[in-house]
Amino acid sequence: MARKKTKTKKTVRKKKVIRKTKSSDYTAKDIFVLKGLEPVRKRPAMYIGTTGPEGLHHLIYEIVDNSIDEAIVGHCDEITVTLLPENLIKVVDNGRGIPVDIHSQTRKSTLETIMTTLHAGAKFGGKVYQVSGGLHGVGISVVCALSKYMRAEICRDGKRYAQEYVRGKVKSKVKKVGNCRGTGTTIIFEPDEQIFKEINFSLKRILDHLRQQAYLTKGVRIVVQDWRKKEKKEYTFYFEGGIVSYVKHLTRGRTLRNPHIFYGAGPKNGVLVEAALCYTREFEFYEESFANNIYTKEGGTHLTGFRTALTRTLNDYARKNNLLKENDTNLSGQDVREGLTAIISVKIKEPQFEGQTKSKLGNTEARLAVDSLVSETLMDFLERNPQDAKAIIENCVLSQKARNAARAARETVLRKGILDGLSLPGKLADCTSKDPEKSELYIVEGESAGGSGKQARNRRFQAILPLRGKILNIERARLDKILTSKEIKSLVIALGTSIGEDFNLEKTRYHKIIIMTDSDVDGRHITTLLLTLFYRYFKPIIEAGFLYIAQPPLYQIRAGKQLEYVYTEDGKDRLIKEIKKKKVSKINIQRYKGLGEMNPEQLWETTMNPENRTLLQVNIESAHRADRIFDVLMGKEVAPRKKFIQTHAKKVKNLDI
């Protein structure tokens, strides 16, 4: 889970000026035709999703996808990605190499055609690539368009060819630059700072993605090199076990309910399907789905087919083996997903993705193929492994009972709110604004901080909800137990979204929900508990960008008539150095450990005033990494937490004793 520092500012609305024009003002000269790769440079987000960090890294993935496509059809077994100084990226594969002969339609080199023309590639014909991730044929040409510099080197027929490009335009013709052995393609590119305002490649992000690709492509070696600094680093990924190895990786350190990991694979109606799953003793579930090695983070038809098959097959097995009695209700999809870790991968000839970033699969045949394959192979697995099957079904039945108890508890909470005349919790000091976009909720620690917050706030748009003590650690509890907590019930009613199955983001009463706690150990602990609650039960609020953490000052520094508030240790050191240069004799430093140490005027000016305050916006960079961190910090297992503390102990600052 990452935190994004944001400064809030007042928005000045300008009146819209409507100017009447004559029809003759709109003529043919007003129509602009973009040629070549100009549309990509004009609207880059249409092709890579965003020009932020995610879009920047997407450039690497587009190039690697082409190499993976060569691997899928059996013509490549090694891919090397190198991060070079000055933001250069180099991707090398030992595939067949892009053709360099003259293309019959464009009358240009095939290499130049592919690199500088949208929707040009072998993936449209269906003969060279039966399956591929680069559906639209725009991947490498988009990278070319958004690169300040690009060079392609091709090894074919014992000769090495090269061509260079600048911002999507050819710099030189294809030239023979030497001899070579074997075959392959090398792409070197530098992202354009005119498109990407901040160019900073994250090694961790790249490693995570390419490790995932190695799991999905059996027998392919992926090497990642970081040569940006003097100390060079190299990582190699190679997994014979494929997605079974991936499931083991995702569940490392957790107790499995079924020691034998299910794996099913095979062709169904022209679609190659792979699925692997196991159950852990956790309450949460984790699924990842892929189409032609492209991570479909929004799922799609293949994931729908898997979920349908999983629910039906487990119910059928449970009925057949009397693990569900005649009067018992069927297990629901939610029941069979508790504690589940699953990977679903399909290879399909003509994938229909939503958008160039390929976040969701739409092929109907994928749903039918996955449903059929998983139903057959999972039933066979359960019958061959009766102990694993029994453990899985018992877990699902326990989940069903807990879900029913949680529903009753949730209805009690909601009904109480209704019976109170739609009233909000008594401890909530609400704002007068009823517009969620303009309303803010401060979740504060304790009655004293709540009192200060109530006096400091702007009543028009700022609400205060004080929580007494530390809320329940929800990482170790089911929803029915969670809803016995008065503090959590108050929060659920205040947010207005409900919780669990009935959660509805559109009913959120505030579009800024701000956690404001003391800057001490207890305050950090309360923040962690609240982040755990939001991540597990209100994740859409985080994904919508509604959750923030307030940043109260750590110090008040007074030197003569000068009064400053400082928010970091480094800031304090810099300010003191500046003051000493002015030869001020007396410096008074006050360390704030609690919000209660500030009077309402100071709290408003430093922490709550939109003009001056600093907020950290909470967002999820990697769902699985966030999931692991919460398990370590807040879960039942002591050993992983102890190891985490020992590993990071020397990095701790401002430890209160």
Summed up:
The protein is of the alpha+beta class and 657 residues long.
Task: Give your account of this protein's structure.
It is a single chain. This protein has 657 residues and is α+β, with helices and mostly antiparallel strands. It has three domains: 39-237, Histidine kinase-like ATPase, C-terminal domain (Heat Shock Protein 90); 243-402, Ribosomal Protein S5, domain 2, CATH 3.30.230; 424-552 and 616-651, Rossmann fold (3-Layer(aba) Sandwich). 36% of the residues lie in helices and 21% in strands. The chain contains 20 helices and 23 strands. Strands 2, 3, 4, 5, 6, 7, 8, 9 and 10 form a nine-stranded mixed β-sheet that branches. Strands 1-23-19-18-16-17 form a six-stranded mixed β-sheet, with helices on both faces. Strand 20 and strand 21 form a beta hairpin. Helix 3 (53-72) runs antiparallel to helix 5 (139-145). 39% of the residues are buried. Mean pLDDT is 84; it is low at 8-34, 124-130, 133-137 and 418-422.
Summary tags:
Rossmann fold; Heat Shock Protein 90; nine-stranded mixed β-sheet; 657 residues; Ribosomal Protein S5, domain 2; alpha+beta; single chain; 21% strand; six-stranded mixed β-sheet
